[in-house]
Amino acid sequence: MENLSTTFHPKHVLEEYGPVHPNDGAKICIICETCISSRPNYFYCRVCDFFFHKECHTTLMESNLTIDRPRTHEHKLTFIRKTNSFNCDACGEVRSKKMNMYACLPCNFFIHRNCIYLPKVIKLTCHSHRLFHTYHVPDCNTGCSLCFASFVSGCGGYMCINKTCDYKLHSYCATHELIWDGRDVEGEPEETSNSEDVTSLKDVDGNTFRHFSHHHDLLRFCVDGEDEGDERICQACILPIDFDSFLGCKECGFALHDTCASLPRKMEYQFYRHPLALEVDIEEGFFSCS
């Protein structure tokens, strides 16, 4: 162990330690917020009771004490070298006992280090329109459309780009790894779905149908207990066709439930961050999600 002082934390003497033994307990770097054991050397301030990686200290002091990013704020931002309890203007959260905030003091603007790089415009599968980031969510007492908790007054979040839509999300809800696909779509043209790409089933002449998964035309049959649906298996869901109407092939016995045949080829599922595509494995005879 070595005692020293640094320009990053000049008021107190710091203790420098080597690699952390796994049994020493969890220690979190106050700068990068990851486990101390992820890098070999670290500092400890006994007075303030916090740790930080030597590497994080060096990187911060050499290049990241100030950030000039007009997309985030018009003025240069300066790192606050103290633990803080300020609301972040971008997300509204208070992360007390953390040293992770930049500020523009003339503007009274405070923002978490990670929030500096929040995407401007995103598209989520849980909503039909794009969302844009704002530093002021109006009517903050209304809840987040995902977690239903209210917003912090005067702080930011994501709002629907369609002004007639009241859909809005906390910044941290909108950019959660299970919700957001990681893309900032600002400036990108909106994707338009071609009906040919979405529709699985085409009506040929009113009696005959064509499904994208099968090379023969299909006819509609009705199951009445003794009809042609007996012992047939739907090639989409692999369940028996034992009631209602179905689509079948006269040439090879291929069959689909009406409902399965009408599934869209592309869809968005609110609990998964990427759009889903319906695919068919001809050899195995079933549909899979790509």
Describe the protein.
It is a single chain. With 290 residues, the chain is mainly beta. The chain folds into four domains: 61 residues, Wheat Germ Agglutinin (Isolectin 2), domain 1, CATH 3.30.60; 52 residues, no CATH class; 73 residues; 87 residues, no CATH class. The chain is 8% helix and 25% strand. It has four helices and 20 strands. The strands form five sheets. Strands 13-14-15-16-17 form a five-stranded antiparallel beta sheet. Strands 1-2-3-4 form a four-stranded antiparallel beta sheet. Strand 18 and strand 19 form a beta hairpin. It is elongated. The model has no long low-confidence stretch (mean pLDDT 82).
Give helix and strand order, one letter per element, not per position. EEEEHEEEEEEEEHHEEEEEHEEE
The tally of beta strands, per DSSP, is 20
| Overall domain count | 4
Mean pLDDT: 82
Protein name: DC1 domain-containing protein
Keywords: Repeat
InterPro entries: C1-like_sf, DC1, Vacuole_Formation_Reg
Pfam families: C1_2 (PF03107)
